């Protein structure tokens, strides 16, 4: 090879090396820019068309702002935002139920093979509106899509008159559907639905359509006490039609619709008028046959109309929260990380922080791209990523694939789809950066994500669904004014901050009602429940999944009883996550209408169905209800002559010690000692005994001696006295919270040795002389906090720093900054509330009351006792949003099947006691 050829080869190699170096430098710079948000990644929505892209306006966007309802005649300022625009018309129908016109005609039992109207244009919709305006009654049904939309949208509407069926393409007509508003709001026209609870809300959400004069065939089934209330049951009973409900899970966005989907959609409304006509005739017949309603021959029909029109008064509300994703993160940590079949896990703060960031990212990505949360990223994938902390995008991809592939094939609510989702695939690098960065709080994280993805220079395009997010750039953050001025805010700010902190700490972090459904093997609806109950059956192969959204299962065995057979229609009604008193949806707490101190002692078959008497209340309504309950407890204590609180205690297991009759020890031994005095004295002596003045130490020692019969006491006796009246759990909490050393080992041995005695005695410790019992429950502690009082152990600390004076001990009251407080836990004055109630609890009061009721009146007396508590709750709160089927006279009686966790035969005695 010549010199010239060698030079050419070397020059070529040099050029290739330079090109390679330039390429490496370019892609390295691009990667670094991508890591720091400097380059714009390609979003999958740039090449994927979604049907909702064609919508010119939406009434419910994906922002955190509230939903704005339709206002008639533009009177926005004159009507509060919570007012239903047609409340007057619906209220009139509730007071004067209308006459249901005959619903028969051509649509009786004829099949759906005939022609139908396919409405796709505005002119066709206007013609349909004119047709409906001339009708006396028409049937309506809707098909929804929720997987590829954050809030979901109506994909199809079916309307049937007595002469023809219509299918409305609500995707093509989305911006024109308001044309039907006047027809649906006309009180002279009856609209027939089946299970309209969700339909009326969806119509408000998408089109500002409000239903006035509604007849719900499901409510008619309730009044008639039908064995089933499903549309499939009605179709088979009255029309001989077997509906394929699996088509309900189809993607109703697709166009054109398949022949099977058209037939299914038409059938839901086509036969509905005939079914309604049959039910109306049965309601009238039942009224005529029932002698107790001889004065009103249409009472059953009127009741069905009242129940139906009550549904129309519902208002659609968007779920909002202070910090996006925080409530979901708390729920995931609780369900996947804190509890497991293998035992209790304690996740690190780093894992919890990663879960919080992933939930915030998922929430924002779902809103930005208008996708459902489960489509963006599954909860299993969130847990896997947070615990394994991937170091590169490929690792994130692999973890998600593995997590979703290994999840149970019958997992609830997770439809068949490719994973990871396109949202994750197009933003893998951004997700990795998010995991590597440290963010102080959810608000900063929200702003960072929003800025990176949604502003004009972000990675994702703006749309009518996500544009409003920019107006909520500064979300309401947690009140941080407590951190200023040395933690001493003004009184006004402190009260507001205290309430907000209470809401954040104690309010439910996730929806309480999941409205999952359980069906019997014959298709009969048994109850609505949460996801955990469904998963319990599925994990044990006791049921099969029959629907994803909302989740539903069918049992593979015959249950012991049916809700309607046991007079428990409440359990086959869907429920809403909102305060039953005022309708607040931003926060709520569980409230027990029948206090636990009584219910825990009910017979098992009367207390296992507790959900009827556990309702959701906001902080303000919870405080009102709790105050009324405390007042009623005092009334119960007076009626049954059973003291509500602990009075005097003494150690009955000690040998009697001789004491001078005229000495202080003799008096204490005869009268016993107040448990508050005993604990206060024991705590003070344990912590400050050696530093106390001699006379004060002797005074407190005499108090403790009085409990032990007057004998000399040791440090071990002081430790025992400190734990008097506490349940084993509360003893462990006290030891952990206060860090007491318990030099003599009493803190551990006493707690463990007395646990069996505690359960065996029904909550009465061996030291009891009159009324010693367990401390307040968690709900009592929350209620005390809500009323501005400190929790149990803060009270104990306060008593340690403020020992009783001889004058206070003699008078029976202690002087504090908040006034005089009775030492025995009683209430001073008619309207006062003692801070010591939480410390002392209710002792055996509840058990003795229940035992007396059972002895004198039997189980019927327990039912009447519960009714009294429900009546007191209704009078105190005046609830307007109680779930359908809730009744003051509700019966909680039930039988236990073979697989029931409450069946005493299927669980050891200790498990029964723990469940109680």
From TrEMBL:
GO biological process: exonucleolytic trimming to generate mature 3'-end of 5.8S rRNA from tricistronic rRNA transcript (SSU-rRNA, 5.8S rRNA, LSU-rRNA); histone mRNA catabolic process; nuclear polyadenylation-dependent antisense transcript catabolic process; nuclear polyadenylation-dependent CUT catabolic process; nuclear polyadenylation-dependent rRNA catabolic process; nuclear polyadenylation-dependent snoRNA catabolic process; nuclear polyadenylation-dependent snRNA catabolic process; poly(A)-dependent snoRNA 3'-end processing
One Gene Ontology cellular component annotation held by this UniProt entry: nucleolus
Transmembrane segments: none
A molecular-function term among this protein's GO annotations: single-stranded RNA binding
Basic and acidic residues bias locations: 803-823
Superkingdom of the source species: Eukaryota
Region (Disordered): 744-774, 803-837
Polar residues biased stretches: 828-837
Protein name: 3'-5' exonuclease domain-containing protein
């Amino acid at each position: 090879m010549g010199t010239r050829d060698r030079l050419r080869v070397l020059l070529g190699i040099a050029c290739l090396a330079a090109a390679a170096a330039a390429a490496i430098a370019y892609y390295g710079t691009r990667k670094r820019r991508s890591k720091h948000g400097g380059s714009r990644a390609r979003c999958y929505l740039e090449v994927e068309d979604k049907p909702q892209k064609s919508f010119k306006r939406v009434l419910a966007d994906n922002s955190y702002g509230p939903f704005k309802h339709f206002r008639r005649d533009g009177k926005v300022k004159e009507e509060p935002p919570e007012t239903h625009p047609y409340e007057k018309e619906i209220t009139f129908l509730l007071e004067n139920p209308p006459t249901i016109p005959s619903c028969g005609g051509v649509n009786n039992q004829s099949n759906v093979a005939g022609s139908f109207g396919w409405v796709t244009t505005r002119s066709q919709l206007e013609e349909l509106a004119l047709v409906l305006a001339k009708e006396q009654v028409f049937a309506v049904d809707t098909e929804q899509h929720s997987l590829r939309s954050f809030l979901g949208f109506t994909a199809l509407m079916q309307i049937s008159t007595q002469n023809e069926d219509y299918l409305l393409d609500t995707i093509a007509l989305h911006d024109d559907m308001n044309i039907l508003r006047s027809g649906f709001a006309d009180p002279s026209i009856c609209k027939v639905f089946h299970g309209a609870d969700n339909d009326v809300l969806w119509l408000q959400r998408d089109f500002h359509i409000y239903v006035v004069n509604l007849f719900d065939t499901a409510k008619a089934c309730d009044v008639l006490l039908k064995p089933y209330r499903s549309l499939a049951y009605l179709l088979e009973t009255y029309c001989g039609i077997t509906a394929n409900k699996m088509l309900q899970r189809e993607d109703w966005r697709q166009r054109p619709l398949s022949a099977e989907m058209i037939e299914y959609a038409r059938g839901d409304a086509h036969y509905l008028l005939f079914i309604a006509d049959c039910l109306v005739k049965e309601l009238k017949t039942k009224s005529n046959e029932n002698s107790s309603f001889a004065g009103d021959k249409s009472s059953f029909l009127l009741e069905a109309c009242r129940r139906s029109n009550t549904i129309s008064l519902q208002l659609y509300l968007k779920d909002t929260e202070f910090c996006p994703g925080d409530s979901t993160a708390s729920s995931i940590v609780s369900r996947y990380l804190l509890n497991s079949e293998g035992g209790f896990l304690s996740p690190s703060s780093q894992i919890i922080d990663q879960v919080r960031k992933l939930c915030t990212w998922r929430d924002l990505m779902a809103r930005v791209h208008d996708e459902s949360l489960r489509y963006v990223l599954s909860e299993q994938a969130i847990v896997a990523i947070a615990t394994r902390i991937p170091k590169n995008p490929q690792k994130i991809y692999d973890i998600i694939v593995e997590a979703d592939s290994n999840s149970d094939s019958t997992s609830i609510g997770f439809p068949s789809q490719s994973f990871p989702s396109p949202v994750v695939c197009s933003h893998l690098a951004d997700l990795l950066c998010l995991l590597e960065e440290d963010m102080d709080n959810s608000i900063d994280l929200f702003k960072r994500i929003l800025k990176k993805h949604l502003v004009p220079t972000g990675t994702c395009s703006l749309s009518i669904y996500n544009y409003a997010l920019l107006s909520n750039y500064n979300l309401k953050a947690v009140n941080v004014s407590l951190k200023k001025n040395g933690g001493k805010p003004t009184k006004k700010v402190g009260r507001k901050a205290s309430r907000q902190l209470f809401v954040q700490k104690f309010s439910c972090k996730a929806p309480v009602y999941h409205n999952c459904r359980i069906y019997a093997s014959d298709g009969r609806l048994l109850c609505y429940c949460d996801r955990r109950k469904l998963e319990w059956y599925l994990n044990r192969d006791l049921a099969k999944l029959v629907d994803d959204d909302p989740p539903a299962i069918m049992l593979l065995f015959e249950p012991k009883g049916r809700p309607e057979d046991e007079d428990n229609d409440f359990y086959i009604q869907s429920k809403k996550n909102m305060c039953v008193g005022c309708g607040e949806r931003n926060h709520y707490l569980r409230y027990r209408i029948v206090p636990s101190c009584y219910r825990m002692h009910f017979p098992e078959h009367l207390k296992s169905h507790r959900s009827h008497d556990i309702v959701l209340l906001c902080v303000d309504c919870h405080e009102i209800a709790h105050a009324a309950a405390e007042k009623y407890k005092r009334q119960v204590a007076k009626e049954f002559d059973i003291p509500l609180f602990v009075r005097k205690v003494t150690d009955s297991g000690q040998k009697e010690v001789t004491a001078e009759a005229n000495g202080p020890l003799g008096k204490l031994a005869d009268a016993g000692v107040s448990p508050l005095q005993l604990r206060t004295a024991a705590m003070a002596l344990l912590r400050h005994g050696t530093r106390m003045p001699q006379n004060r130490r002797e005074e407190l020692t005499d108090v403790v001696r009085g409990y032990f019969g007057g004998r000399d006491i040791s440090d071990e006796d002081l430790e025992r006295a400190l734990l008097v009246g506490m349940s084993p759990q509360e003893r462990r909490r006290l030891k952990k919270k206060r860090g007491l050393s318990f030099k003599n080992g009493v803190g551990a041995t006493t707690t463990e040795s007395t646990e069996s005695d505690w359960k065996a005695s029904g909550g009465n410790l061996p030291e009891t002389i009159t009324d010693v019992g367990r401390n307040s429950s968690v709900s009592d502690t929350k209620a005390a906090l809500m009323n501005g009082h400190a929790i149990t152990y803060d009270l104990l600390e306060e008593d340690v720093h403020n020992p009783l004076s001889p004058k206070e001990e003699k008078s029976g009251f202690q002087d504090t900054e908040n006034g005089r407080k009775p030492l025995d836990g009683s209430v001073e004055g008619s309207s006062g509330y003692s801070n010591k109630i939480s410390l002392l609890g209710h002792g055996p009061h509840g058990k003795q009351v229940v035992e007396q009721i059972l002895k004198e009146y039997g189980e019927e007396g327990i039912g009447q006792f519960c009714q009294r508590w429900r009546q007191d709750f209704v009078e105190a709160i005046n609830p307007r949003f109680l779930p359908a089927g809730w009744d003051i006279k509700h019966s909680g009686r039930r039988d236990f099947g073979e697989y029931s966790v409450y069946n005493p035969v299927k669980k050891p005695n200790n498990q029964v006691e723990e469940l109680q």
